[in-house]
Amino acid sequence: MASSTSTGTTSSPGSEDPVDPAIGDHRLLGDGWSTALLQPDGTVDWWCAPEPDSPPLLWRLLDPDGAALRVGPAGACSRSLAYDGTTLLTRTLLDTGTGAVEVVDGLDGGLLRVATIVKGELDIEVVLAPGRAWRRSTRFEPFDGGVVFDGWVLRAPGLAFSRSAEGARAAGRFRTGERVVVSLDRLDAPLVPEQGALDRLDDQRQRWRRLAGSTLYEGPGADAVRRSVLLLSAVPTRSVTTSITAPGREELALDSRHT
How does pLDDT run across 69-86, given as a tens digit for each residue? Predict the structure, then answer.
């Protein structure tokens, strides 16, 4: 596996993250059309899909009762979230002390999450909270291997979903080297096998690396320039979307992160 960049966030074993993680603790996933935001604990808490001006499919970032998707071990663990080199894929390392899992996330029209056990044995859970929209009118139907959710389908082959207090949950025990493939795609999208998921992530990785490599600037802050190119390329309207608050302080530059 390719090594991650040092651009990431970490927390120590057993530590409690804030209820509302700072926007700067998130990492952005993008495919040139829509974007999603990922917390260090493995929760995707913002995604407008299929278009950037669509109603959010996941929105807990702005509402504690909003929809979110988490993949990772249950209970306390150390957390490290970083971009996968010069790409807009992310790597999240979650370590309980007795086991560790690395989750690689990418966006290519659908949300793709591949969790690989890198140490020991772990009970991995996939939790989809549908948010308050479900209690109004959204279709939300768990089935063996996934959940139909508001015109989309969450799949995790090999895991059986059932209703939980949060919405729907599936869990299983996995050993070193084993993987859990999780996808959130349009309802008519085909099932993604493990190798197909790895191929999709690698295609994304190569595409972002080619884009970063096309940047000619090699002066001071070249890495930051390449990262900015990637972030701007994550959204369809480029600078139009990000220009409104981009000159301000990072904590106020919300539109460039929320799309």
Answer: 999 998 889 999 999 999
pLDDT in tens, 188-229: 998 888 999 999 999 999 999 998 888 888 888 888 888 888
Q: Which of 102, 35, 101 is nearest to 254 (CA)?
A: 35
Residue 239 falls inside a structural domain = yes
> Is 128 within the bounds of a domain?
yes
**CATH code for the domain of 113:** 2.70.98
- Give the predicted TM-score (pTM) of the model: 0.83
36 bridge partner residues = 29, 47
The residue range of the domain holding 51 is: 8-258
Residue 12 lies in a domain: yes
Neighbours of 226 (CB within 10 A): 19
Q: Which residues of 175-194 are buried (b: 16+ CB within 10 A; e: fewer)?
A: eeebbbbbbbbeeeeeebee
70: Cα separation from own chain's centroid: 9
Domain count, the chain: 1
Q: Is residue 69 part of a domain?
A: yes
Where residue 210 falls (left for φ over 0; alpha for ψ -120 to 50; beta otherwise) is alpha
* Residues sharing a CB contact under 8 Å with residue 239, sequence separation 6 or more, in sequence order: 232, 246
In angstroms, what CA-CA distances link 256 with 9, 163, 213, 239, 247?
19, 35, 23, 9, 11
